[in-house]
Amino acid sequence: MSAARDEHEEAAADIAAVERANTAFYEAMERGDLDELSGLWLPGEDLTLSCVHPGWPVLTGRGDVLRSYALIMANTEYIQFFLTDVGVSMTGDTALVTCTENILSGGPAEEGNALGPLVGQLVVATNVFRRTPDGWKLWSHHGSPVLAETGEEEDEEPTV
User: Is the pLDDT of residue 140 over 90?
Assistant: First the structure.
């Protein structure tokens, strides 16, 4: 019984560590901390890292992925993530986190304003982490926009 309990406690500790790594990723984005964000991705993975931002093509390789975040940070005055529907699945040294990113962001300030207009959006995301000697590191991020409902009935007859 003790061995089963130990395995359960170890799995719970791994899930908690993955959740912390996932949270650290979003918090680094909110602060615009590219150095911290860079340290959260797998090191030395010049060919296998991948990232898909909503509306962007697939980015492959550490350099392209980190450049994309530098670009986003340079052009976003304010961003905040409210994560919902967070789920963690694990197999061996790989963890999969799915979540909904409820994003509030703003661009550069318009003349005379402290902050540009704020925009909200929903993105469903998948973050894949790998276990390393230095903790759980991001291997892949994929974000896909959630299309807003129009409120119109799909079964309506077209008007002629």
Answer: yes
